[in-house]
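Dataset card, provenance and construction

Sequences and ligand SMILES were collected as paired inputs. For each pair, a complete structure of the chain with the small molecule in place was predicted and serialized as structure tokens. The example below shows a pair involving NAP. Curators did not alter the output after generation; any descriptive sentences attached to a record were derived from the structure itself.
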Amino acid sequence: MLTDTTLSFIGSGAMAEAMIKGILGHGLIDPESVTASGPRPERAQELRGRYGIRAITDNKAAARVGKIVVLSVKPQLLPKVMAETREDMGANALVISIAAGMPIGVIRRELGVETIVRAMPNTPGQIGHGMTVWTATGAVTQTMQRQAQAILSALGKELYVADEGYLDMATALSGTGPAYVFLFMEALVDAGVHMGFSRRVAQELVYQTVEGSAIMARETGLHPTELRNRVTSPGGTSAEALYQLEKGSLRTMISKAVWAAYQKSKALGELAAK
Ligand SMILES: NC(=O)c1ccc[n+]([C@@H]2O[C@H](COP(=O)([O-])OP(=O)(O)OC[C@H]3O[C@@H](n4cnc5c(N)ncnc54)[C@H](OP(=O)(O)O)[C@@H]3O)[C@@H](O)[C@H]2O)c1
């Protein structure tokens, strides 16, 4: 899939490394065809040692050699990095941005490139268990789409959407999602400690319960309501607990939180486009 191409990462932090690790681990490309740039020589040395790739401190050189260029710096640095590399970016390069909230229109305007993929990964992508939602401009060929898909699947699952608008929704659901889940887990662990479990034991109980429930939902394919009903005996403990959660409007709070994140994502995108 990625043979006969060259792949550059501008910004060689956690996400870039997760992609490099996944792509090389699956043997999709030779290390010699991968370049990663970032400001710190010691980080470059680290990546060279770990993966045998070409790791450098020159973004312009990385842009020049990449037929596929992944923009993997923090969103606030992206305008500066795009201005710096504009002249070096090949007119036919496939640019893949994983920077949260940066609209395709801005990338096109700042880089003068037409073939752009915009992706929204999430933090579990750092360990290969992420959910990445992505879209592509009309100029991105089928081959380029397959290449983008291969690169993004190094982070875990990926899903193509035809409309960029879905990326704001994905930002609110799967991009921000780990924050909701971690908060829920934290609250459960604290509740366990409140009852008298040690933190270590409470954590073990909660982590396994969350992981097992997620796998069960996926593997059985049953609706969450059905799975919840199966835990809820008449007059039992779950019914008592669920009553309190509904009384506290948990469902409405979650819906409001996701909606707020969606509105925020759209507002940040509009700000970036100015
Ligand atoms: N982390 C996630 O799970 C996640 C989820 C969704 C989206 N994303 C997106 O993924 C992108 C990368 O995130 P990350 O978590 O990998 O961040 P990160 O670990 O901080 O990586 C960013 C890298 O960019 C480097 N950098 C700083 N200034 C630079 C410059 N002028 N030119 C080139 N590189 C520069 C940093 O180097 P130094 O360390 O030396 O400063 C760092 O290695 C972000 O745009 C973020 O929005 C991340």
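Derived descriptions for this record:
The two ends are 37 Å apart (CA to CA).
The longest helix spans residues 250-272.
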